[in-house]
Amino acid sequence: MSINITEKDVLNALDQVEDPELHASLVSLHMVQNIVLKDDRVSFDLILTTPACPLKNEIESSAREAVMALGVKDVSIQMKSVIREDPRLKNREGLRIKNIIAIASGKGGVGKSTLAVNMAVALGQSGAKVGLLDADIYGPNTHTMLGVDHIPAPQNGRIIPAEKSGIKLISIGLLVDPKQPLIWRGPMLHSAIKQFVMDVEWGELDYLIVDLPPGTGDAQISLSQVIDITAAVIVTLPQNVSVDDARRAANMFTQLSIPILGIVENMSYLKMPDGTHNAIFGEGGGVKLAEELGVPFLGEIPIDAEIREGGDKGIPIVKNKQDNASTQLFKALSCQVAAGISRLSHQDSHTG
Ligand SMILES: Nc1ncnc2c1ncn2[C@@H]1O[C@H](COP(=O)(O)OP(=O)(O)OP(=O)(O)O)[C@@H](O)[C@H]1O
Ligand SMILES: [Mg+2]
Description:
Blueprint: H1 7-14, E1 18-19, E2 24-25, E3 32-38, E4 41-48, H2 56-68, E5 74-81, H3 87-90, E6 100-104, H4 112-125, E7 130-134, H5 142-146, E8 162-164, E9 167-171, H6 187-198, E10 207-211, H7 218-226, E11 231-236, H8 240-255, E12 260-271, E13 277-278, H9 285-293, E14 297-303, H10 305-313, H11 317-320, H12 325-351
The structure holds adenosine-5'-triphosphate (ATP) and magnesium ion (MG).
The site of adenosine-5'-triphosphate (ATP) has 20 residues, from helix 4, strand 12, strand 14 and helix 10.
């Protein structure tokens, strides 16, 4: 016997299901599309705000359960995603970059570039279109970490990014002779970095990850101003001196009205052969800083020789060590970052 339900019944049922990140109903978020009812079977598209959605499975099963409760025989859900665009970038003519995410720390050597590279590759693996811009004018090395030594020849006067491990890359290190010291600093370099966003043939990008140089001086401030950064991720070690510098970096972004997606703690511990954790750089600094700043703690990454090795070999750990625990941590972090961007764009759409 066939039951009598309409598209409106399906929408009403799905209106009761909330996106756990955005705290609003799937229907009000326009996530439900193309509902088809046939022979007591329902099919629809569920459009997530990022393919790297940490709660993808949870949302799908809650939606299925809600529609099954109408008494239908079967529910078929096509999971899709459309990443929303930072409204400020939308207004930039000719630019097809939806969101720009800066990776920063006050202190040098804490793992910004390592995080930027692995996060970019992980987001690319999830299905997003990702670019990486190495804006570290003092010591660019993301190209080394990705195993890239040149960019293609320019086309029609536009710079073409390198492509590796599923992402696009532009680094100052690919444009200047590596043997020459970088005397090309200051305003000229900043306008070059701006050009890297505006005049590089990026194509359409969901996320452009920007690896910023360490520090919170004039160089970092003006770089953060020349690029329209959607939000920043702050990296710190657990130790106090690194946290102090990370706090300065966070304050810099706050003063520039750039939202902070959260804190990543790198080199949190070294796993010993007996399974215990050796907290070489101290403990808990990342969580404490996140609490103090009132921003999410995005997660911790241990000291792992395979992370270092991947960087030196130009093959990021997330690319070819799928079973490694650090790979899983980088992937989870990337999902948290993507979810943070979704939350921001949701807030923007409500505050205008
Ligand atoms: N979790 C980790 N485990 C092991 N080695 C790591 C880890 N994170 C980073 N490294 C290594 O530590 C060194 C510094 O990392 P990285 O270059 O990413 O830091 P950075 O903050 O970008 O430095 P800089 O401030 O100089 O730009 C690199 O050799 C990298 O391979
Ligand atoms: Mg670096």
